[in-house]
Design brief:
The structure is a single chain. By secondary structure, this protein is an all-alpha fold. The chain has one domain (2-289). The protein contains eleven helices and no strands. The chain has helices at residues 2-36, 46-56, 66-85, 90-110, 114-145, 150-153, 160-163, 165-178, 206-231, 236-259, 265-289. The longest helix is centred in the N-terminal third of the chain and has 35 residues, at 2-36. The protein starts with a helix and ends with a helix. 44% of the residues are buried. The mean pLDDT is 87. This is NADH-quinone oxidoreductase subunit H.
Length: 292
């Protein structure tokens, strides 16, 4: 009975704390972006203020179905966060995360807006671009640790980054898709100069727009959790270095977002597959000849 209570408390803490940390990262993102652009920028807690404001706003309902997909997407993303942060099966987490992205794309199609439909199509193209790299990352981590469970992967004596440097580079490359940063923010435009306006989220308002923002906070932490796995080992000190690596990668993505412009979907798709097919496959081929 005590074990069940402890497990329930851990799950509740993950569900509550993950978006809080994700929101702080979003605030950090805005501050750094403003500094890069020579502006003061908003306060660190501005993303939370925005979400609270959206919750209080009146919803403008386009139809009765498109909102359903957003909430289902959030449920799958929360489930992914629980699986990963509890040290569960990384392959299962990837599949559940993909389901969340698919339902989000369905919401874009259901809204019947031209901008949303284009955004939904680009969302699916993004998934086709980055999913192979994510699966190869899981395969590489399995080859190193002989397990798909994150708790087992981070209990090794040597960090996975030692054996999978090219896979890590490839994952950071497609991480730009997952974090919706330039030059690969194809489906959901956050900047005024982009031709897609708000893309897949164009027709959402009020509470549903707040749900989309919270979902993105979860996704940010999930994406950085993959980075964390590359550096964490059985040595407690390594977990500190893993957190630092996550922050460095996130800072890199922010700077990249503010120093590049969106590329065409064709280039994004081809480049992601080239990186996946050349860099990562070579790394796995070399790894297959090593004996652990």
């Amino acid at each position: 009975m005590g074990f069940i209570m402890l497990l329930a408390i851990r799950i509740i803490l993950i569900i509550v704390l993950t978006p809080l940390v994700g929101g702080l990262l979003a605030g950090f993102d805005r501050i750094i972006s403003a500094r890069v652009q020579g502006r003061k920028g908003p306060p660190l807690l501005q993303p939370f203020y925005d979400v609270l404001k959206l919750i209080k706003k009146e919803n403008i309902q386009v139809n009765k179905t498109y909102k359903f997909y957003v909430y289902v997407s959030l449920i799958f993303i929360i489930l992914t966060a629980v699986i990963m942060l509890m040290g569960g099966d990384i392959l299962l987490a990837i599949f559940v995360l993909t389901l969340g992205a698919i339902f989000f794309a369905f919401g874009g199609y259901a809204s019947q807006s031209p901008y949303s439909i284009i955004g939904a199509e680009r969302e699916l193209l993004q998934m086709m671009a980055y999913e192979p790299m994510v699966l190869i990352t899981a395969a590489g981590l399995y080859m190193v640790s002989k397990t798909f469970f994150i708790s087992g992967i981070i209990s090794q004596d040597v960090p996975a980054i030692v054996y999978l440097p090219a896979v890590f580079v490839g994952f950071v490359y497609i991480l730009t898709f997952k974090l919706r940063k330039s030059p690969f923010d194809l489906s959901l435009g956050h900047h005024a100069h982009q031709e897609l306006v708000q893309g897949i989220s164009t027709e959402y308002s009020g509470k549903e727009l707040a749900v989309i923002e919270v979902t993105h906070w979860y996704e940010s932490i999930i994406s950085l959790a993959f980075v964390y796995v590359f550096f964490a080992t059985s040595n407690p000190v390594s977990h500190v270095w893993a957190v630092i690596a996550c922050l460095v990668v996130y800072l890199f993505e922010i700077i990249l977002d503010n120093s590049t412009v969106r590329v065409k979907w064709q280039l994004a798709f081809k480049s992601a597959w080239i990186v996946t097919g050349v860099v990562s496959i070579i790394n796995l081929m070399i790894l297959s000849f090593l004996k652990f």
